[in-house]
Amino acid sequence: MTQPAGTCPNCGAKIVFRWSSSVQTTCEYCKSILVRTDLDWQKVGQVADLPPNSSPIQLGTEGSYNHKAFTVIGRIVYEYEQGNWNEWHIVMNDGTSAWLSDAQDEYAVSFAAPGRHIPEAGNFQVGEPFVWDNITYLVSAITTAHYRGVEGELPFQYWDKGDVTFVDLRSESGDFATIDYSETTPALYLGEMVEFDSLALKNLRTFEGWS
Amino acid sequence: MSAGPMPPNRPQVKALNCPHCGAALTLRSFGNAVTVVCESCHSILDAKDPNLQVLQRFQAATDPEKPLIPLGTRGKIRGTEYEVIGFERRTIHVDGVPYSWHEYVLFNPYKGFRYLTEYNGHWNDASVLKALPEILPYASPPKVKYLGETYRHFQTAKAGTSFVLGEFPWQVRVGESAEVTDYVSPPRVISSEQTGNEVAWSMGEYMSGKDVWKAFSLPGDPPEATGVYENQPSPLSADTKNIWVVFAAFLVLLVMMMIGFDMSSNKAEVFTGYYKYDSNQRGEASFVTDEFEIRGHTSNVEVDTSTDLNNRWIYLNYALINGETGQAFDFGREVSYYHGYDSDGSWSEGSANDSVAVPKVPPGRYYLRVEPEGDPGYGVTYYTISIKRDVPQNSWYGIALGALLLPAILLTWRTLSFEHLRWAESDHPPIRIGDSE
Predict the structure, then answer these.
(1) Statement: the pTM of the whole predicted model exceeds 0.80
(2) Cβ contact (<8 Å) for B109 and A193?
């Protein structure tokens, strides 16, 4: 599944990627942020040290969702008032890209949902309803998060962000939606809250004192 | 997965010192906690700050509270190991009287947070809801629906935090309060906590102190549970449901028995005779019938009399006599039938037919002695006597039904009393008969 994709323009280390559609990755040696150009990779930035993180998930963690195996290949780290949280970029064995969020060990799987009407930022209220794909979602939280860094492969270019507004929504049947207002065109992700056990995760981190 | 980046360092339990009193502090949640409270000086510290900045200090010296499950204790809940990392006391005031319960913060590095609550020896295993409950509009009392189950509003109260220890995944402060609303469907409870315009939903499931003690391998015995708790499963409700199921089963059995016995009973006609009685005729009217055979085991015998009486009566002295042993069963039947018209319309009284069961008649050869009486001047009455063996007696079924019904009703009544105690503590106390709302 992994394939060579050239060398790091910064340090010359070999860049290996796990997903053919990756647009961005980080060099695991020099921590350069690299984006794909027509021919090669271009360094666009540098990852500062990521904050200490307690997610049990890491790059290379494997699991299963909706009877499809997936691998964790990248992540975006945000900081908010409850600490930091991870948007893990996962790739299903059919090539679909999705996100596994982990905030204080609460997990959700979501997929980019382009082409749907997205309300403008700034005029939300908790409890306000929105309907996508015939599911009614209610705004559960409006979070101003601070971008802290990236790691691994991402399906789009994403680096050097400041404060990002997220609107999280939930339905009465466990559906989950989040709107990312970091770009001029906001992005909508639709998915569901998931139980840790249901993901059957392998290759997790270990914790001192816990087996 | 060969060429992946090296996994980050293995997270470790952090041992730090309280910046206020210098006492040793353990951070057990690998950075998931937002606040941590020093167990020695009760300083509330910013767990996100490497220097553990003091956020608040609260006076606990006059009001010390010792968690029943010490911080750092591990136990298994639903197959997952959890560690107790935080403890708080929350207090509500009802009519000026404070009521307090305790909440334990449990943590597992993979599964995250879970909670145990305790009030007067009643425990709940609680976790955050994944989906939003549906608030049923216009319901009175208010109701919410979650995963197909309906929960009834129990109580809404302002709950203040009055004591804290250890780690919390949120910004905890002593003195802060939230509006807590409980909806119950025993053994579960759904709670909403509203602070500002944010609402957090959680679900608790009732646990006995005994099960908590077992889960955390605690020494001694749990404190005795007092009173009835809002989502405590009624110890009888399951039994009540069962007893009605059993009752229904017996009822079906009984009906089947009734039909079965009715069909299988011989109801054999062992004798039939046609007679004429003329009340104008002088002389001895009594006679005996021919002998007939009554078979089977000792059981009842039905004697049916059908007449052509019309605004008349007849009295029949019967004696069923065993021709072999001489044993006699004496009984008399009055048969009368009157009808007519008056200002209220038509009326009738009595019946031209009569039926009687003679119990416990042993098998043998019998004959019937019959002595009819009637008003002189009535003239001729024609009547038929038929004798049947082994006729089911349906009155027994009624008695059996009553015997079955009695325990079911008693248990139901006791269950209702339990529910009465439960709801008496709620915002919706049951209305007693005679009260007006």
Answers:
(1) no
(2) no
pLDDT, one tens digit per residue, over A68-99 is 999 999 999 999 887 889 999 999 999 999 99
Chain A interface mutation, best of B132, B134, B203, highest count of A Cβ atoms under 10 Å: B132
Give the domains, in start order, of chain B with CATH numbers: 14-233 (no CATH), 239-262+396-423 (no CATH), 266-391 (2.60.120.380)
d(CA B36, CA B173): 10
Residue B5: closest CA among chain A residues belongs to which residue?
A28
Q: What is the largest CA-CA distance in chain B?
A: 127
Q: In the numeric block, which tokens belong to residue B223?
A: 């404190």
- Judging contacts by C-beta atoms under 8 Å, the chain B residues touching residue A81 are 34, 171
- More confident position, B348 or B430: B348
> Is the CB of residue B199 less than 8 Å away from at least one CB of chain A?
yes
Q: For chain A, first and last CA: distance in Å?
A: 30
Identity of the residue in B3, B111, B199 whose CB atom sits nearest the CB atom of A196: B111
What is the CATH architecture of A3-46? Single Sheet (2.20)
- Predicted ipTM? 0.90
pLDDT digits (tens, 9 = 90+) for A84-137: 899 999 999 999 999 999 988 899 999 999 999 998 877 788 888 999 999 999
Mutation target to probe the B interface, by most B beta carbons within 10 A, among A78, A153, A207 is: A207
Q: Which chain A residues have a beta carbon less than 8 Å from that of B7?
A: 58-60, 205
Helices (runs of H) and strands (runs of E) counted in chain A: 0, 15
